[in-house]
Structure formats: C-alpha cells, structure tokens
Amino acid sequence: MEIQIGRAKRARRVYSFDEIAIVPSRRTRDPEVVSTTWGIDAYTFQIPLLAAPMDSVVSPETAIAIGKMGGLGVLNLEGLWTRYENPEPLLSELAGISDNTQALRKMRELYAQPIKAELIQQRLSEIRDAGVTVAGALSPHRTAEFYETVIKAGVDIFVIRGNTVSAEHVAAEGKEPLNLKQFIYELDVPVIVGGAATYTGALHLMRTGAAGVLVGFGGGASSTTRATMGIRAPMASAIADVADARSDYLDESGGRYVHVIADGGLGTSGDLVKAIACGADAAMLGAALARSTDAPGQGWHWGQEAYHDELPRGNRVNVGSVAPLAQVINGPADVADGTANLMGALRRAMATTGYSDLKEFQRIELVHTAR
C-alpha cells in the first residue's frame, strides 16, 4: 500500500515490530512438545539464536557458552579479541568511562591497533577446542584481506556482515570490490551475508550462493544510522519482503533454500517471536545478549559503527545487566519485560498459538495494531 507524501513523491507503507501482533489459533500445545530446532547447511542448532559479532556481546568464552546452549556465537574478527592478547582489562577500562565523547575517543584509540592473523587463528581454535560450531565475521572491506586466515583456522560458518551488503558494489578508482558470487563459490564453508532490507537486495545476495541472508539496516539499539543518514528498515516489513525473496528464489533455483536471519531491532523476546512469525528462520541478537551479567561489554553495548573515523553512526549505550547469559537465553526469568528467558518465551508463544516447529510458526496470522 502506498501513501502520497506530496505531489512528487509516494511511499510504501511498512511496519515495525511495535505495529504488529500475532494471533492465537484454535489449538494449543504444551511448551515441552514445541521444537525450536533449525539448521543451516550441515549444521543443526537447538535454538534459532545467533549472537551478533560485536565486542560487547561475543568473546571466545561467550561463543562457547552459547554453542553449548544450542545456539551459535559469532566472533567479531575485527574486534579487540583479534587485536590484543588480553583485551579484558581494556573492556573494563571502557566500561568505566561514562562520558560518550571520551568513550568514542578511547575506542578509536583501541581499535587503531592492527588486526593480527595469529590472534584470529588462536581465538577460533579456542572455540573449536570446546567442541562447538565455529563462526566468525568480517566486514566486506576486510574479507579479502583475512578470509584465507579464517578458513585455515577451521571456521565452520563464515559471516560477512555490514550495515548493508550488496552483490553489486561499486568501488572507487583503484579499489577492487569484493565479488561475492565468485568468493562464495570458491569457499568450502557456508556463508551468511547481510544486511539486506529489500526484496531485490536479498534476491541478489541469494543468487551469489549465500547460505543465509541477514535482514536489517540501522535498527539496533546502538545504531544511529536513522539520525545520521536518514536510513531505516522497519523490521517486520523487511523480514517479510526477504522471506518472499526466499520463496521466489526457491522456485528460481530449483529447490535451494536460503535461510533468512533477522538482525537488528530485536530487543525483547516479543520482538524475537514476531521476527520468526514474519518469516525469519533465526535471529541474530545484540543488545538482548549484551544485557547478560557475563557479557564482555559489562552492561555497555556498541557496534563497529560507533568508532568510525569520519562518521560515527552508532553510540555506546548502557543496556544494563539483567541476569547471567544462561538465564537470558533459557531462563528462569526474574523480570516480566521480555529481557530474560528468550527461548522460553518463544516456545510458549508457539505453544499458545498451536504451532509445533519454526517453519509452521512462520505461517501464523498477523494483525496490524495501532501505535
């Protein structure tokens, strides 16, 4: 549905999670008989949760813990863990700075340290030695430089994550753009790419051979992209659009299924439930996990955009600490605001509405609610 902005411009009506709700059906189930299992390529996970590759969320230790709980922790391979032998004192120092301007200056100083290939190998080896699935993320402009190191280190799932990733990037003169299709074709591991926020952008990424597409742009708790660049992707509509691209690509490719992963704007368990209902196979969580008492950010949360040299498009935000990571993910919850027992909330929502697994739950009825 389009609305008229003015005589020369029309806009499509889109929806955020706050503007939609799921509707119960006739049947109900016990939460114990509901399955939240999902898989990508040869890897199966008990919960549809990926921890976002952000230094405030994932350390090797938390990646291991999340893996043992049935999810996937994605390590930021451009973060402090691949620049310093022992970044924990630096994270504590950052946590002790309350002024955001001072924190930005300190982050720029810390992240100016070069990324070390040997630390990439060391951190990924730590995760692999724990017996969980190994995942690491690079931004598009770092991928060509470090992907061989990542593959040699034995990564199971490779994530290329940026604010937006396209299959047709135009580079400045003298710079060679990353050819996603050729790059993914030459790799032996499944690749998840994103973000994408539109049907067309997602379809192009699916045609590169990606195993999964991240959906979102500038919607996270730490992002200020909406304020600095005027760009925003209301997540309910973005996920539904990309899910439609997944269906069309399934027909186009003769049966190749590409997983849709919601990434951004998922602050509570209710947002996670709605993301799956809109068509996501899984969700990549940032702030929701940064609230755990054992998160590396120690109550603070930030992304790579926060310390950009020329145009910061994010803040370091104080998200607080609500519970240990295990309770945030699997409960029990001591609060009733959707910040703890994320998986328990998803299972109960599925049970209350009568659905037995995630694929079934994607077919649930949605309604538009007045804000």
Strand content range = 15-25%
Q: What is CATH's topology name? A: TIM Barrel
Shape: globular
The CATH architecture designation is: Alpha-Beta Barrel
Taking all residues together, what is the mean pLDDT? Answer: 90
Structural class of the helices, strands and pairings? alpha/beta
Which bin fits the share of residues in helices?
A: 25-40%
Order of helices and strands: EEEEEEHEHHHEHEHEHEHHEHEHEEHHHE
Task: Please provide the count of β strands.
Answer: 16
Q: What spatial order of strands do you see in the largest sheet?
A: 6-7-8-9-10-11-12-13
Helical run tally: 14
How many structurally independent domains? 1
Distance between the termini: 18 Å
Question: What would you say about this model in short?
Answer:
It is built from 14 helices and 16 strands. The protein has helices spanning 60-68, 88-95, 100-110, 117-129, 140-152, 180-186, 199-206, 225-229, 235-252, 269-277, 287-290, 325-330, 342-353, 358-361, and strands at residues 2-6, 9-12, 20-22, 38-40, 43-45, 49-51, 72-76, 135-138, 157-161, 191-196, 212-215, 259-263, 282-285, 300-301, 317-318, 366-368. The protein is globular, with a radius of gyration of 20 Å.
